[in-house]
Amino acid sequence: MELNEKQTAAIFKAFCDENRIKILQLLIDGEKCACRLLEAMNITQPTLSHHMKTLLDSGIVNGRKEGKWMHYSISEEGLEKAQKYIDYLKGEV
Amino acid sequence: MELNEKQTAAIFKAFCDENRIKILQLLIDGEKCACRLLEAMNITQPTLSHHMKTLLDSGIVNGRKEGKWMHYSISEEGLEKAQKYIDYLKGEV
DNA sequence: AAAATATATTGACAAACTTCTATATGTAAT
DNA sequence: ATTACATATAGAAGTTTGTCAATATATTTT
Hints:
Two copies of one chain form a homodimer. Chain A is an alpha+beta fold. Chain A has a single domain, classed as Winged helix-like DNA-binding domain superfamily/Winged helix DNA-binding domain (Arc Repressor Mutant, subunit A). Chain A is 58% helix and 15% strand. Chain A contains five helices and three strands, in the order ααβααββα. Chain A has a three-stranded antiparallel beta sheet with strand order 1-3-2. In chain A, a hairpin with a 2-residue loop joins strand 2 (61-66) and strand 3. In chain A, helix 1 (5-13) runs antiparallel to helix 4 (45-58). Chain A binds chain B through residues 5-6, 8-9, 11-13, 15-22, 24-25, 28, 74, 76, 79, 82-83, 85-91, and chain B through 5-6, 8-9, 11-13, 15-22, 24-25, 28, 74, 76, 79, 82-83, 85-91. The structure holds a DNA duplex.
């Protein structure tokens, strides 16, 4: 494994909050803008923004700005990193 | 997915702390007792005990008591659950 | 029974995290 | 230019988490 403990923990921060899990679920069927995520969740706009930042930092979510909209989607690459770490723990690497 | 957001977050709690990641690394090459984990880490015994409880709760680690020793090991079953969730996010389920 | 050892629990404190309101920034429409 | 809309940032409050020292519990050894 090429990552240290801090970096690994940062990746998985994406998955250890209830609301972030909910956001990830919403992104499963494809890219969504922040406003659509917001209306599907029971949190304020700044709270969503904060979680999106955490998700971007973790690398599990991609962001794409288009005009005044911010579009978010699940990052295959990010998921693969997480997956690789779990494989590593399974002794499969 | 048969798990709710809270349960899913609980599983991944295992991976979102630096020290817990370190503990998991130590368990990769097999079961270890708490005392051996302790001497490999830079934390006090109660802190280790606290993290082991979190890891047990997450289902990622198994515990086995033998005399006065507590032996911990990585749970294949727990890892599989985590893995399945990530597969799910990838749209592979 | 007493001492020694391994681990867990309690309680306190500090750091980190989640959430909010208020406000700022950036973009598009009038 | 002004207004409207989408998102981000700042700052504060409350909550959770990580950590430790002190103590309790459980097991083994003497």
